[in-house]
Amino acid sequence: MSNILKKLGIQRAVRNEFYLRDKALSGDLVWVVTPSTVVVVPTEVDWTRTVVVELQTAAGEVHTWFSDEIASGNSIANTGDGTASIVSEILTIVNGRAEVVVSGIDGWDNTDTDTYTVTEATILGYTVSAVTSKETFED
User: Fold this and answer.
1) What CATH number is attached to the domain comprising 60?
2) Strand ranges (DSSP E) for 63-130?
3) Domain contains 85
4) Boundaries of domain holding 100
5) What is the pLDDT of residue 14?
């Protein structure tokens, strides 16, 4: 960890920034999506859901110092007759956080699913593993 955390006169917010960056520089980086799973009733109407994506430490602290656009950082897949989509494959993270809207059209029957994926990324030379948010339609 950085010795700067022990220096007098440095404001708490600056210390926290260094603390989080030190964790990132040691490879403490994970994607977290909320919700990771959701179950809803089948529907014939168009719908949307919002998935929150955060770059966090293993302890759940958000890397607020991180802002970037990750090309091909998003993807969506679905099973069944409905069609799920996202606005862009580019994942735009601001202050360690993004919100991605997943939209569905056509009919969604029992056992249909849509799966939103934040793809694997390399940040500061470390691989951050992919993570998914899955929605299942069930009676």
Assistant:
1) 2.60.40.10
2) 68-70, 74-79, 83-86, 91-93, 97-105, 113-118, 121-123, 126-128
3) yes
4) 29-137
5) 82
Q: Between the CA of residue 41 and those of 6, 85, 111, 115, what are the distances in Å?
A: 53, 19, 10, 16
Predicted TM-score of the model (pTM): 0.89
**pLDDT average per 10 residues of sequence, the chain (139 residues):** 63 83 94 98 96 98 96 94 95 97 95 97 97 97
pLDDT at 12: 78
d(CA 41, CA 9): 55
Shortest CA distance to 58 belongs to which of 29, 97, 35, 98?
29
Q: How many domains does the chain have?
A: 1
Burial 80-96 (b: 16+ CB within 10 A, else e): bebebebeeeebebeeb
Instruction: Assess if residue 24 is contained within a domain.
Output: no
Specify if 89 maps to a domain.
Answer: yes
